[in-house]
Specification:
Elements (H helix, E strand, L loop, with lengths): L1 H30 L15 H11 L10 H23 L12 H9 L2 H11 L3 H32 L4 H6 L6 H4 L1 H14 L11 H4 L9 H26 L11 H25 L5 H40 L6 H8 L1
Helix pairs in contact: 1-2, 1-3, 1-11, 1-12, 2-11, 3-5, 3-11, 5-6, 6-9, 6-13, 9-11, 11-12
């Protein structure tokens, strides 16, 4: 039964990614006053299926003197990590094959392995362009991973948990977006860099490195990198909704269908932001990217962490002092009940 659920999740992911690419091409086309895919099927709806079949049946071309096992392992591992993260988020409410208290730490630990896929793909291709793209991607992911974790630390502290479901449940009265609006804005910028999206798609800068770390890949191997990127966009959109917008618990709707509809509608809005940013924002140079990360985003995210930590510390200290003052008060039990 569990394997069947995993298989259904994978098939649903492939379906969502396929039509995510169609939606991206359509939205960018309308922004640029074009039509986008509109020939294969009604409104181009069969175009993603044709593209997938074409990627599968194409001939795989491998460079000479490549490191064969790492060359084949890199795209497979990239897609596998994305599926593991998606299955983790999909089964949070029902499955317990992870630590229920530290599942967000588990999520961050798995996502950090994406660095190896970029580095292996660039190094094993035996190409200078691919190697430079892999090094760029590794430096970028390593840098923004620190910002990613630092921006989440105040939320973990304020909720006193590393469990993403508990964080979502605790937002039933008020969503974190109202309390951590600056963190949410910077978090969106960071996940743009984490997923190698414009304006931070430096590892895939086609004007400089042809196609970056995946320049020597073709057919299904290239498609796996493509699927992993779009799956990571869906995962990060899902994560933004759970952490900052309350997930399912931010909507007091009795009808289960409308609750799921509005939850998925919010995820679609975040995905559309990815697409709109790609259409209207130019790409950074690599030195500008690293300057923005180490000199702007990381100091600001760390300052958020210190600011919210000091507020939480002062709040807990005031509550503790108030509790000491009320020890001899006959209404102390009412205060304890209220705080609980």
């Amino acid at each position: 039964m569990f394997l069947l659920e995993v298989l259904c999740t994978i098939l649903f992911t492939l379906f969502c990614v396929a039509y995510f690419t169609l939606a991206e091409r359509k939205i960018i086309a309308y922004i640029q006053r074009r039509k986008g895919p509109n020939v294969v099927g009604l409104w181009g709806l069969i175009q993603p299926i044709i593209d997938g079949v074409k990627a599968i049946i194409k001939e795989q071309i491998k460079p000479l003197r490549n490191f064969f096992y790492f060359f084949l392992l890199a795209p497979f591992l990239s897609f596998l990590i994305s599926l593991m993260l998606l299955n983790l988020l999909s089964f949070l409410y029902t499955k317990g094959y992870f630590d229920e208290y530290l599942n967000m730490v588990f999520f961050l630990a798995i996502s950090s392995f994406n660095v190896f896929t970029l580095l292996w793909a660039g190094w094993s291709s035996n190409s200078k362009y691919a190697l430079l793209g892999g090094i760029r991607g590794t430096a970028q992911l390593f840098s923004f991973e620190m910002c990613f974790i630092t921006l989440l630390l105040p939320i973990f502290l304020s909720n006193s948990t590393f469990n993403i479901i508990n964080i979502s449940i605790l937002q039933k009265d008020i969503s974190n977006i109202y309390l951590f609006l600056p963190s949410c804005i910077y978090f969106f910028v960071v996940i743009l860099a984490e997923t190698n999206r414009v304006p931070f798609d430096i590892p895939e800068a086609e004007a400089e490195l042809v196609a970056g770390y995946n320049v020597e890949y073709s057919a299904i191997n290239f498609a796996m990198f493509f699927l992993a990127e779009y799956t990571n966009m869906l995962i990060n959109s899902y994560l933004v909704i759970l952490i900052f917008f309350g997930g399912f618990n931010s909507m007091e709707l009795e009808n289960w269908f409308f609750t799921c509809f509005f939850f998925n509608f919010k995820i679609v809005l975040i995905c559309c932001l990815f697409i709109i940013v790609r259409a209207i924002v130019p790409r950074y140079r690599f030195d500008q990217l690293m300057n923005n990360c180490w000199k702007i985003i990381l100091p600001v995210s760390f300052s958020f962490f210190l600011f919210f930590t000091s507020i939480i510390y002062l709040r807990n200290g005031l509550l503790y002092n108030l509790e000491i003052d009320l020890l001899g008060n006959p209404y102390y039990h009412l205060y304890v009940f209220y705080k609980t």
